[in-house]
Amino acid sequence: MSKVVKIAVSGASGKMGFEIINLINKTKNLILNTALDQKDSPYIGNIIKNSKNKSIQIDFDYSSNLDDDVFIDFTRPDASLHYLSLCVKHNVSMVIGTTGFDEFQLNQIKSASNKIPILVAPNMSFGVNATMRLLEFATKIFGNDHDIEIIESHHKDKVDSPSGTAIKMGEIIANTLNKGKNDIFTFNRMNKEQKRIDGEIGFSSVRAGKIIGDHIVLFAGDSEIIKIEHNALNRSTFASGAIKAAEFIHNKDPGLYKMDDVIDSEIKKHE
Fold first, then answer.
1. What is the three-state SS of 151-184?
2. Choosing from 82, 90, 155, 158, which is the catalytic residue?
3. Residue 3 annotated in active site
């Protein structure tokens, strides 16, 4: 890219927002243009310096500054949809890393993608997305005769459960097996008093301490267990993926994109 791409970041005072802004300031051809946070944030009004040493004030109202090229959003579903409507109105591309959307909200995002390019991913980490490709391969080999369990762990402040990444992993496995997720996903076995149902995918969630994000998928057979695991050591892995996503989505045609598209684009660069 030759043009400097102007970036808006929501959740600017949060841990993910900090990581993303820090990386934007280190990335050639990207510049922080807008920093947003929730209205009751104690950081509203604080000043952030971008890579051109320009002062960017953290604000809560996005309607006053809509000359961005790409909006990176890591917030909550309701906030994401508010920003989405403004991005559509003012033709701003969007990268959404927020999780916890329901089906109605996901359909709103899909509808909006007819007007602007949108990249949605429950996890921006290249490692996680490479792991998902491994899951598809493993499912083809072991999925029909092994019990499958997904265990995810996150910090105590994460509000949605299971994680969006765990759900996405389960969807990949279900699609590979040509099964509907509503038929085989099991989120709670409490008081069922029955043995494991053949073919189900069980989910377990841990919320504790400051765990960044760990995901384990077990393929358990009678004589062996295959374990595919990803552990995030810090948030920079998600920030790096979000930056790559922003670079990718800029100037794309309207449509709904995913991290697989970004990975394929990166692979082509090195072929």
1. EEEECCCCCCCCCHHHHHHHHHHHHHCCCCHHHH
2. 158
3. no
